[in-house]
Write a structure and sequence with these properties.
This protein is an all-alpha fold. The radius of gyration is 22 Å and the shape is flat.
Length: 120
């Protein structure tokens, strides 16, 4: 009478804020090492990191705290990827997506059974 329907929600591997941040960081590192990206564009992430570790940040904006650091890192990474050639960004994003697909292959899955033990 009450037939259970299978759950239609399938979680994706690319969900989650932390996963997106890690992928964005990987993309930036790959683009920083690419010779096809302009040297001037590469100064943006370097400048954002210098600002992050700079003590002048605490003196100039003491009441904002880590919010401005996070906003500056996000803005710097966004502007940097926008200034990079779109074909180069797409190439690196596809390579990163390939890494995710390779890491989730069926070879990594272990098929096992569980056994319940009752203690006397």
């Amino acid at each position: 009478m009450n037939e259970k329907k299978p759950n239609q929600i399938v979680p994706t591997q690319q969900s989650g804020v932390v996963h997106n941040i890690i992928n964005q960081a990987k993309l930036i590192f790959r683009l920083m090492g690419d010779k096809r990206v302009s040297l001037l564009a590469k100064l943006i992430p370097v400048g954002a990191l210098i600002y992050l570790v700079s003590p002048a940040d605490a003196v100039l904006l003491p009441y904002i705290g880590p919010i401005d650091d996070a906003a500056l890192l996000w803005l710097g990474s966004y502007i940097f990827t926008e200034l990079c050639p779109p074909a180069v960004v797409k190439e690196h994003m596809q390579a990163l997506a390939g890494e995710v697909e390779e890491s989730a292959t069926a070879d990594d899955v272990v098929d096992a059974e569980t056994t319940d033990f009752k203690e006397d």
